[in-house]
Specification:
The chain is of the alpha+beta class. The protein has helices at residues 2-45, 62-72; strands at 56-57, 84-85, 88-91, 103-105, 112-119, 122-129, 137-139, 151-162, 168-180. The chain is built from two helices and nine strands; from the N terminus they run H-E-H-E-E-E-E-E-E-E-E. Mean pLDDT is 79; it is low at 46-52.
Length: 182
């Protein structure tokens, strides 16, 4: 009789161990599924690796952006651009050259650039189109292609980083305030 109880205890103990093993396998499968779903959700939310986005630089964040660009290396990596300019362009009259507008393509950059300046409320019609600015060169005495009346204008300068054939490699958007005094 002692063998029957022992035999039943072994059967119950064996079933208990099998039950625990099955429960552990189910828990691991559920945990793996949750991890997989979370990882695929993050991958969907992240932008594609080759997706390029414009960066808007404002007077409020220009120091932060400059620190990031300057801390990475002494020269700017290919496909990127360090913008050196003033962000408030003043004109005595809307059809005269600015007495303070300045745009430089620093020697740390790797490619030539050109800029198009738009009023923030009309990014279809450029009010200024620069010539190509080679590395190490700058623009001053900028005259708008479309004269503006007296006033203060919120504008966007779109930098086009170009290759040797003047094909755009990337762009950088920077806010500029244009002030026409008379």
């Amino acid at each position: 009789m002692g063998n029957e109880n022992s035999s039943q205890g072994d059967k119950k103990g064996g079933k208990f161990v099998v039950g625990i093993v099955v429960l552990i396998v189910i828990i691991l499968a559920l945990a793996g599924t949750v991890v997989y779903l979370l990882m695929s959700k993050k991958a969907e939310d992240a932008p594609a690796a080759n997706e390029k986005r414009n960066v808007v630089v404002t007077p409020d964040n220009m120091d932060e952006v400059a620190k990031v660009l300057n801390s990475s290396s002494e020269s700017t990596p290919a496909g990127y651009y360090t913008a050196t300019m003033n962000y408030e362009w003043r004109f005595k009259k809307g059809n005269e050259a600015s007495y303070n507008a300045y745009v430089e393509n620093t020697v740390g950059n790797t490619n030539a650039v050109y800029i198009d300046l738009f009023r923030a409320d009309d990014e279809e019609n450029a009010i200024y189109k620069s010539p190509v600015i080679p590395v190490g060169s700058s623009l001053q005495d900028i005259t708008l292609d479309t004269p503006l009346e007296k006033g203060t204008y919120d504008c966007v300068a779109v930098y086009h980083l170009v290759d040797d054939d003047q094909n755009t490699l990337s762009t950088l958007r920077v806010t500029v305030t244009v002030i026409v005094e008379e």
